[in-house]
Amino acid sequence: MAIAQTLVTGIIFRMFNAQESDKVVHILAADGSRISCVATGVRKQTRKAHAVDLLNLVEVKLNQLGELPMVNEIKLVEQANQFKLTYPDLILSQFICELINLSVHEAEAEVGFYRNVKALLEVKKVTRPLMLASALMLRFLYVGGHLPPLGQDVGSGEKLGASGAWFLPEGGYSANEVANADFVPARLIKTQHFMLENTFAQAQNVALSPEEQVQLFQIHVQWTQAALQAELKSAKILLEAVTISV
User: Fold this and answer.
1) Class of 5-79 per CATH?
2) Which residue of 36, 40, 130, 144 pairs with 217 in a disulfide if CB–CB is 3.0 to 4.6 A?
3) Which residues, 6+ apart, have CB-to-CB distance to 185 below 8 Å?
4) Number of CB atoms found within 10 A of residue 36's CB
5) Architecture of 82-245 per CATH?
6) Nearest CA among 43, 28, 41 for reference residue 70
7) pLDDT > 70? residue 30
């Protein structure tokens, strides 16, 4: 009897050891779905092991056997080595993988998640990790239907003032002053629009000060955590890594 096989193209975002030499691998597939599979023998030095690494774009032939499909063949399409050159780059790669893991579910396929991660991995050189992380969170919020209106008060629909607005951790801005809320200058809100409308490379090059980059990153972290109802544990580590590198 022939064994059913499936060919999948996608990005590896999670993996952990199983048995003596195997790994369970999670892939963000090109159709936006999440696929879990078992790659046998990859903890040994084999050609297959070379392909199984975080953020690698791979083509995988899966055998539909047992509870999890087994990797029959795996082909490395592209490595994201530019995200693994420095300590901040490595932490950024962990952040990307954690965001995918929290956002993408096996029961739901959303191609926008895959397209945005693939577009991010096309950035040739990482110079501002926080800007890339901010842009990815903003796009994930949009794809997931959680992005609040950026140009108006989230409650009243009132247009935001020319100078800026007050940040709401649960999502959005208030046109009127809110007690214990941080004020966000219009410059950062305009940057959010720019991030949504342009490439990751262009978003990375927006001329924000280090302090502005941190503020924007923290806004997006809080919005994302509120939307996902989960903590982005690598966010604090990424902030510390960028501070150390500076």
Assistant:
1) mainly beta
2) 130
3) 163, 164
4) 14
5) Up-down Bundle (1.20)
6) 41
7) yes
